Amino acid sequence: MTPYEAIFRRKSVRKYREDEISGKILEKIGRFEEDAIGIRPDIRVKWKILNGADRRLKGLFRVRAPYYVALYSEICEDYRKNAGCLMEQLALYLHTRGIGSCYQGGAKLKNDEERELELVMIMAFGYPAEPLERRYEDFRRTELKRLVTIRGEFGKVQRKLLEAARLAPSAMNLQPWHFVATDGRIHLFVRKPGVVGYRLQQDFNLFDAGVALAHMLVTAEELWFDLEYQKLDSIVEKEFQNYIYVGSLTILNDSEKI
User: Fold this and answer.
1) CA distances from residue 73 to 39, 115, 135, 202, 204 in whole angstroms, order as listed
2) Residues 6+ apart with CB under 8 A from 169
């Protein structure tokens, strides 16, 4: 199974066996940014693997698992989107190895010793004690036509990218994104957070945007065409309903060849 195929099968796993994961896989997790397709490879990140017995983990809705991985990042523009993009690719990779995972959005570390980088997200993982996969029909996601505004030519490459993005997981399954498809481009927006919990909602929305971007980048890698991520000055200040502009993907290949 490839990471692309995992997009259409993966689900969050909340029950785990205590089986150990091989040192080789744990080592790969610890340097996963070397293999992932990032939107900002210049951003410094750090992965930290925690044993399930580590009592430093705290927070609401925490899943009990044999392992957790914490992703840290330097604070700069796009860092939450970049973190979401990297961690979702890790989740897809783990799925291809028969390992389940589940984001721990409310989890933190007691007495965290990391001082230079910010803890962005923690993810539980391990061999599942429940079904690892779900059928495509079992995804609870908004229909594509309600997530996309089409302005210009809409090709089959854009449809494949957007269908993969539609299946991306998000905090509380809120699916905070909207896409504008134009000739050869997909522009990504996320919902403006409400007044209550503004900062937390914004943080999760930006991380979720990175998760959706990961699905599109993995799709492009699988289907042998190139994408370029950028933030376009011409769109940054645009108002689009109740959404905030996140960034754009430009399709560099001729879509008619795919």
Assistant:
1) 14, 11, 34, 17, 15
2) 12, 88, 103, 208, 211
Burial 199-217, CB ≥16 within 10 A → b, else e: eebbbbbbbbbbbbbbbbb
pLDDT at 97: 97
Task: Tell me which of 190 and 235 has the higher pLDDT.
Answer: 190
Q: Residues near 88 by Cβ (< 8 Å), separated by ≥ 6?
A: 168, 169, 210, 211, 214, 215
Which residue in 237, 244, 241 sits closest to 192, CA to CA?
244
Listing DSSP states for 210-253 in one string gives: HHHHHHHHHHHHHHT--EEEE--HHHHT--BTTEEEEEEEEE-S
* In the block, residue with structure tokens 């610890």: 30
Mean pLDDT across 163-186: 95
Could you give the angle at the alpha carbon of 238 between the alpha carbons of 235 and 240, nearest 5°? 115
| Beta strands in 98-184, from DSSP E residues, in sequence order | 100-103, 108-109, 118-126, 148-150, 177-182
Contact status, residue 191 vs residue 243, Cβ threshold 8 Å: yes
Classified as helix, coil or strand, 125 is strand
d(CA 250, CA 191): 22
CA atoms within 13 A on the CB side of 255: 16
pLDDT at 45 over 50: yes
Handedness of CA 117, 123, 246, 164 (dihedral sign): positive
Binning pLDDT at 50, 70 and 90, where does residue 26 land?
A: very high
